[in-house]
């Protein structure tokens, strides 16, 4: 056995254990009896302790030093294991434990604060979380930029400055489009009615099948928040049902099918290695978004969906396919990120990105956070935050320490824009298939150009090879202006 | 930290990991996508490797030597960890791996042999399994009896000779009762009709509730074979549905509720210690059997069930409660253990017990096994084995190396008989409650006298304290003769 073989064998086990931990998380959110929470917490803690021990095992350092890669894939495996080893080793165990304890506590306090619509008790604990995250960032950064050090967990190779430049280039056109759309004379009709859960779930399965979800390696269940979970031969999705709004269930499903399909589309040879998973959160989100938006909310697929929904629900309050297309893509003022449309979504992200960079750098204190949030929201969205639950308290991310995560959502949209332009050029008859309820040709292109590579290529190189050029916001902005210009008659 | 504290902390993690492994097994049998088998095999192998490392960790030896128990519970914890440590350490890693590999292979060959109704390919691999099990038994026995060494895994403290004496004392009365019942003039009517799955599952939930199943710490799902899985705050059951035979689903459910209730009924302070699980397979089976048979198939509960089933299925082909009671307890000739009634079940076990003792001791070769099985079956049951699938090939146990497991089923019946006599004496109005569809008073007595103790008391002492006397087959035999004598008018 060479050092590389030893490294790989050890890593296979770690990957298997990490996959088990993810499966336990799925179980907890879908099927676990509600009285089992304490037991599951102890089980998860045991797994996390074990995984942390393995990620910082001193033998890793020795194997990594001695390992001789025989291929590009070998070299990348070594690089990825080394990156995790270095990062895990830099964070003192005491800090990791304290962060786990505090964020678990903070999540409960956040949930209560949101339910009570009062941030008073939440802000002090958020401040403690922030202090620990800054400490963690300092340990990880090793003298470099604090925010970049955190970002590296979600979007390796990307920097806060790079994202800021990208977002600054997008904001004017997004703000202008938003104003034009909301001020337009032509306004799409909203869908209304009662849409029974069973029928929604049946349609969700049909939509997942339309987007090529592999039911032999997946399943769909109900959960409070939609998510996808697992990889290789077993990537499951969840959805939720609001009986007044079937789009919530259907487009959540298509979105999660995008995430799961990425994991299931990775070269099976990469299973149980660090190559066997999506390469970054931004690339992951590009897959979910291109399934959901560029394909799922396009004119072709919504035409097919209109017929399906009309049949399933015995008619809709929408006249025809064109009107339905406008309804699906209706832009309305609102405070909530997760309910935002394609036009406004990225503005929600930019707000959070700027605020969290300021929090991490120390330019902004948590005690001034509500005011900063509300002022920025009024500036970007033209409406005031009416209550804290519609402002700072709407997202759990910061409570659980996910600083650096938000921008990957907007980056995913940018990448989806670029991939969509390349995919449309390469698959000119894609809309014909989508109009028949078949996303297959698009899925196939994405599988070939993005998904199958897993972690082999770094995000930037992966996207550049797939799109044939550097990452740019132009394709997304052109697509949005074109699409919403037509719908709103601008 | 004392040595005992160290030992306990280490064991808590091991117990958590072992509970996770069991949850993965549940997932595999109920909800796992069918394409995930290879991945799950690798995940389970990683967990097993890890658990084996922990069970044989040399630090355990040091802590066990230095640990100072402060209570009876502490002493028992030390005893149980030491027992597992000694046993795990005696089996060479090479042998454990080989056994895992071979039994996994043998299970597939057994399934094929049963489907093809042909033992030719199965017997050679069974022989290999047997050789490895004899080797394992020799390592475990450390000079003692081979069969006893294997039995210790399932029924600690029990010996093959002790079981043989118990069974020999039972056989004549069981054989005589069987002949009387089958030859009786009065024969109960069989249930017939079509019983839709959804209605069966609804009734299964009602039955589980009647037996006090705690839905906040459990759930029911469909699986190929009924089983219960998990402990402490999360013990789930499965059932199956045969649309011509609702008793299969309903009594499997009550049986598994018995197993799960045992785990859920253990003192919560014992969670994550070796005290926090059922103390032996025999005691476990005593709980499932007393729920299923002595309570579930009694006159009182079947009277209640008759009304429920008549309503749910819009009438039955059975006239009244008394006839229904006879139908539920109908004794019919048959080859299959899992379909056997209370009268014949133990005879099936005794056959297997005698044959497997002879296999382990070397008195019987696998090449003579089919003949030995068939001859014994004819002798005990008066009918010939018509085909291998109805004979040797019906059970998976030996293929997967479970030698020493079968007798715990019959022992469970014996223990259930003794517990039932004590429970009836202590809870004279139990039948009144059962007639209202409420097993609560019986469950409560079992919880107090058996379940809550978990692994604290060794099996024999547990049963002796609960029943107020030594383990004896008399209460079971008296109960069977009385019950079936009445039903069959003997």
List the strand order in the largest sheet of chain A.
Answer: 1-3-2
Cα distance spanning the termini of chain A: 66 Å
Order of helices and strands of chain A: HHHHHHHHHEEEHHHHHHHHHHH
Mean pLDDT of chain A: 96
User: Which CATH top level class of the largest domain in chain A fits?
Assistant: Mainly Alpha
Shape of chain A: globular
From the coordinates shown, what is the CATH architecture of the largest domain in chain A? Orthogonal Bundle
Give me the number of helical elements of chain A.
20
**Structural class given helices, strands, pairing of chain A?**
mainly alpha
Task: Outline the secondary-structure elements.
2 copies of one chain form a homodimer.
Chain A: H1 3-30, H2 37-55, H3 58-66, H4 72-90, H5 93-116, H6 122-141, H7 146-151, H8 160-183, H9 197-210, E1 220-222, E2 228-229, E3 236-239, H10 246-265, H11 281-295, H12 299-312, H13 321-328, H14 345-361, H15 369-381, H16 406-426, H17 430-435, H18 440-449, H19 459-467, H20 474-488
Parallel strand pairs in A: 1-3
Antiparallel strand pairs in A: 2-3
Helix pairs in contact in A: 1-2, 1-3, 5-6, 8-14, 8-20, 9-10, 10-11, 11-16, 12-13, 14-15, 14-16, 16-20
Task: Describe the overall structure.
Chains A, B: Its cofactor is Zn(2+). Chains A, B: The active site is at 256 (proton donor/acceptor). Chains A, B: Belongs to the peptidase M32 family. Chains A, B: It is an enzyme of class 3 (hydrolase). Two copies of one chain form a homodimer. Chain A is mainly α and 490 residues long. In chain A, helix 16 (406-426) packs across helix 20 (474-488). Chain A has a three-stranded mixed sheet. In chain A, a hairpin with a 6-residue loop joins strand 2 (228-229) and strand 3 (236-239). The radius of gyration of chain A is 23 Å and the shape is globular. The longest helix of chain A is centred in the first third of the chain and has 28 residues, at 3-30. Chain A has helices spanning 3-30, 37-55, 58-66, 72-90, 93-116, 122-141, 146-151, 160-183, 197-210, 246-265, 281-295, 299-312, 321-328, 345-361, 369-381, 406-426, 430-435, 440-449, 459-467, 474-488, and strands at residues 220-222, 228-229, 236-239. The model of chain A has no long low-confidence stretch (mean pLDDT 96). Chain A folds into two domains: 3-90; 118-490, Neurolysin, domain 3 (Orthogonal Bundle). Chain A binds chain B through residues 12-13, 16-17, 19-20, 23-24, 27, 31-40, 42-43, 45-47, 49-50, 214-219, 232-234, 236, 271-272, and chain B through 12-13, 16-17, 19-20, 23-24, 27, 31-40, 42-43, 45-47, 49-50, 214-219, 232-234, 236, 271-272.
């Amino acid at each position: 056995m060479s050092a590389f073989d030893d490294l790989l064998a050890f890593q296979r086990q770690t990957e298997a254990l990490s996959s088990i931990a993810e499966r336990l998380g799925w179980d907890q959110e879908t099927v676990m009896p509600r009285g089992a929470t304490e037991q599951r917490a102890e089980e998860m803690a045991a797994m996390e302790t074990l995984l942390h021990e393995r990620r910082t095992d001193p033998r890793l350092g020795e194997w990594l030093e001695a390992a001789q890669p025989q291929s590009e894939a070998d070299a990348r495996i070594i690089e990825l294991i080394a990156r995790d080893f270095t990062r895990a080793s830099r964070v003192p165990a005491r800090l990791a434990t304290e962060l786990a304890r505090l964020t678990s506590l903070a999540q409960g306090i956040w949930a209560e604060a949101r339910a009570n619509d009062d941030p008073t008790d939440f802000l002090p604990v958020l401040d403690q979380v922030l202090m620990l995250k800054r400490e963690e960032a300092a340990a990880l950064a090793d003298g470099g930029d604090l925010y970049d050090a955190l970002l590296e967990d979600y979007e390796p190779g990307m920097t806060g400055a790079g994202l800021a430049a990208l977002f600054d280039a997008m904001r004017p056109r997004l703000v202008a489009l938003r104003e034009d759309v909301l001020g337009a004379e032509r306004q799409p009709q909203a869908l209304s009615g009662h849409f029974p859960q069973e029928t929604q779930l049946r349609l969700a399965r049909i939509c997942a099948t339309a987007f090529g979800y592999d039911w032999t390696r997946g399943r769909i269940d109900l959960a409070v928040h939609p998510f996808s979970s697992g990889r290789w031969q077993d990537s499951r999705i969840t959805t939720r049902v609001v009986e007044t709004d079937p789009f919530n269930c259907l487009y959540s499903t298509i979105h999660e099918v995008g995430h799961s399909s990425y994991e299931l589309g990775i070269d099976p040879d990469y299973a149980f290695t660090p190559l066997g998973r999506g390469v970054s959160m931004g690339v992951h989100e590009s897959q979910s978004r291109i399934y959901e938006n560029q394909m799922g909310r396009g004119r072709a697929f919504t035409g097919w969906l209109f017929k399906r929904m009309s049949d399933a629900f015995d008619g809709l309050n929408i006249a025809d396919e064109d009107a339905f297309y406008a309804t699906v893509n209706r832009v309305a003022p609102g405070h909530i990120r997760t309910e935002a449309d394609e036009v406004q979504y990225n503005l929600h992200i930019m707000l959070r990105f700027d605020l969290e960079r300021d929090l991490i750098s120390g330019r902004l204190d948590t005690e001034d956070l509500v005011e900063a949030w509300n002022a920025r929201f009024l500036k970007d969205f033209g409406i005031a935050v009416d209550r804290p639950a519609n402002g700072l308290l709407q997202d759990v991310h910061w409570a659980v320490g996910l600083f650096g995560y938000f921008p990957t959502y907007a980056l995913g949209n940018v990448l989806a824009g670029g991939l969509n332009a390349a995919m449309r050029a390469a698959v000119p008859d894609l809309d014909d298939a989508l109009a028949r309820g078949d996303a297959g040709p698009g899925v196939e292109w994405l599988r070939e150009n993005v998904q199958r590579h897993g972690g082999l290529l770094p995000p930037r190189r992966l996207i550049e090879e797939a799109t044939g050029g550097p990452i740019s916001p132009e394709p997304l902005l052109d697509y949005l202006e074109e699409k919403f210009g037509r719908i709103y008659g601008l």
